[in-house]
Amino acid sequence: MFDENVEKLKEWLSEKRTIQELKAMAKNLGLKVKRMMKKKEVIKLLESYIKQNEEIKKLERPSSSTSASDSIKKEDKLSKEELYLPKSYNKNKLVLMPVNPNWLHAYWDYTKETFETLNKLPKEYRIVLRIYDVTFIEFTGNNAHRTFEIRITPNMRNYYINVPIPNADYLAEIGYITPDGNFYSLIRSNVCKTPPNSPSNSTREKWLDLRKKRKIVTPSDGVLVKEVETIPGSIFKIEEIQNKSEQIWELFSKLRSGRGI
């Protein structure tokens, strides 16, 4: 219906019209017509009206029914396609992540060359994942506080590691050990810090202002409820021991007299 009206307006405008007819048509279409406008100006006004409506028609979206059917078709195509993740991204990469104070998670990947090197190693060689405790040191390869070693295979891609010390810095390497006991590193990970397993004794609170993108450090008021401790040998501790001994003696006397409990 819209297209028909525009086409009719075009045909009507192609015929010779008086300025009065042109102004009357423009007013009927809701266009602003000035008294002093010339015939050519009114024609241009009507032509611009036709052009705008044609552009709007081109930009109109398809109906909801057609768009819904198109989306269903796209979903069907996606479901039919085989979507999968690659087994390898062909990169030498070893990542160490904290899980909790006593556990780390390591995952890794190899290039084709590294993978072939590991597969071609003689049986006497051992492929290992090494974990180093590098807390407060700059690691040089042989100066770690402690070293933990886990034997792995070339097809393995991740491992969960139990570490003994929380709140410590750890670093990992994948390599192989020769029969002589020499270790050759192939991949090195990032430095990973495990969280502490107890409340912090810091007297400062650290906040992050997301809007201004800056850190804010303020004095801490400490825990809201302080723990009440009993001093060994205090009068309160003695009274507690006396009460328990009196209860035991009362129970013993009842059993001795034969009255029962």
Automatic annotation (TrEMBL):
InterPro entries: DUF4912. It holds the Pfam family DUF4912. It comes from the Bacteria. This is Rho termination factor N-terminal domain-containing protein.
